[in-house]
């Protein structure tokens, strides 16, 4: 009887260990999957947002990445839509958009996630539109021939999962960063 009890205890302890390891592997897999999806949504969404603001691209594609209620209250997007963008005087051909996710947390069973990231655009390829020369000179002084620099910053984002897709619900600027500060890249 003692041998049978030891054998059952041995099987039960090994089975418990296997179940715990499988649970840990499952949680890790779903966390990694969510982290990758969230990074892609943040990277592509913020790049598209910058392109809409600077390059006057189609803003309807932002709905793939952002919730509609966020888009309706984003100050920079509203300025661009109203023709008040600081890049209105320039023809922007390309940007070097960089995003580094510094922290993210989401339990596998949750539909809300928080992430912190650093966004930078160190290079903007653009030229002054000649019809706006006087306006640009009045706004930007001696540096009017090159587009204004994008303000780098550290952000906190809240994302929600809707129909198995992550969307950015809100973004809050935590701190502005200097272009020479190299903590983001």
Keywords:
185 residues; 4 helices; 39% helix; elongated
- The helix/strand series, from N terminus to C terminus, equals HHHEEHEE
**Total count of helical runs of at least 4 residues:** 4
Strand residue content: 25-35%
Please state the overall shape, judged from the principal axes of the Cα atoms: elongated
Q: Could you tell me the number of beta strands? A: 4
Q: How would you classify the quaternary structure?
A: single chain
Going by helix content, strand content and strand pairing, the class is alpha+beta
Strand order of the largest sheet: 1-2-3-4
Mean model confidence by pLDDT: 92
Gyration radius over CA: 24 Å
Helical percent range? Answer: 25-40%
Please tell me about this protein's structure.
With 185 residues, this protein is an alpha+beta fold. It is 39% helix and 31% strand. It has four helices and four strands, in the order H-H-H-E-E-H-E-E. It has a four-stranded antiparallel sheet with strand order 1-2-3-4, covered by helices on one side. Helix 1 (2-55) packs parallel to helix 3 (75-81). The protein is elongated. The model has no long low-confidence stretch (mean pLDDT 92).
Topology:
Blueprint: H1 2-55, H2 68-71, H3 75-81, E1 90-105, E2 112-128, H4 133-140, E3 152-162, E4 165-177
Antiparallel strand pairs: 1-2, 2-3, 3-4
Helix pairs in contact: 1-3
